[in-house]
Design brief:
This protein has 262 residues and is of the alpha+beta class. The protein has 7 helices and 9 strands. The strands form 2 sheets. The chain has a 5-stranded mixed barrel with strand order 1-2-3-5-4. A 4-stranded antiparallel β-sheet has the order 7-8-6-9, with helices on one face. Helix 1 crosses helix 5 and helix 6 runs antiparallel to helix 7. The longest helix is centred in the middle third of the chain and has 27 residues. The chain starts with 12 loop residues before the first strand and ends with a strand.
């Protein structure tokens, strides 16, 4: 049976390999949709007038395109290259690479529990994608929060093996954000007040988040927050600001915080 493959949706970004280039457009094999092919009209290749289409696309080239129209009955999929910016292209390529890796790990799970890839897809693979949206996301979840797999109703020897392989091969994602404290506190205890305030910055309850402080030279100190995602990082950074500035001001000092871009 294998993985269930349908048609892409309008507005979706897809990865493709250019199969044939004509003056009027390019035919593209869709990498994520087995047996499906899309077409990029020359007007959708680039903004403005395209004199030589091969200046923009060539046979064998990997591209990221946006789906404009889908006609499942005729099997037609119209694509646009010019509607995809560089940031979208990089993100989509990374997602595609992650999914390719996930497919190989999934096949390894099937092999370890004595199933063919097709049988594994039929028994639990398609259900994993229905639940988590993508195989790589399912593997990330199994690696970071293995209890979620059971909570979603997945159990048995294959589930244990899925979690084991995920933990061995999927490194939890991490992001880093930072900012600069400018702190001042007079009097004989001023130095101690600032030191204690900066120590409070690292009082994080979430085991997946870490905060470190680097001395730049009084009165400036850089704080770094490392977390699995930007939302968690920003939340912890906001709490660190409250702890640090609150302690300094409560002891007669003053301080400011400036967010820095990475």
């Amino acid at each position: 049976m294998g993985r269930e493959i349908g048609f892409p949706e309008e507005g979706e970004l897809v990865v493709g390999t250019v199969k044939k280039v004509e003056n009027f457009g390019a035919f593209v094999k869709l990498e994520e949709y087995a047996g499906k092919e899309g077409f990029i009209h020359v007007a959708e290749v680039a903004a403005g007038w395209v004199k030589y289409i091969r200046d923009y696309v060539r046979e064998g080239q990997k591209i990221v395109a946006k789906v404009l129209r889908v006609d499942p009955k005729k099997g037609h999929i119209d694509l646009s290259l010019k509607s995809v910016n560089e940031h979208q292209r990089r993100e989509k390529i990374q997602h595609w690479k992650n999914e390719q890796r996930a497919q190989k790990l999934f096949e390894l799970v099937a092999e370890r529990v004595g199933l063919t890839a097709d049988a594994a897809w039929e028994q639990f693979g398609n259900r994993l994608i229905d639940t988590f949206g993508a195989m790589y996301v399912a593997l990330e979840t199994a690696s970071n929060s293995p209890e979620t797999i059971a909570a979603e109703g997945f159990e048995g020897p294959w589930a244990d093996m899925f979690i084991q392989i995920a933990k061995e091969n999927i490194v939890p994602p991490q992001v880093e954000i930072r900012g600069v404290f400018k702190l001042g506190c007079g009097g004989p205890r001023g130095v101690h007040v600032i030191r204690d305030a900066l120590m409070r910055a690292g009082e994080v309850k979430d085991p997946g988040v870490s905060i470190t402080v680097q001395y730049l030279g009084a009165p400036r100190y850089t704080v770094f927050v490392t977390a699995p995602d930007y939302k968690s990082a920003e939340q912890e950074l906001a709490l660190a600001q409250e702890r640090v500035l609150g302690h300094v001001k409560a002891n007669g000092g003053e301080g400011t915080f400036t967010r820095q871009e990475a």
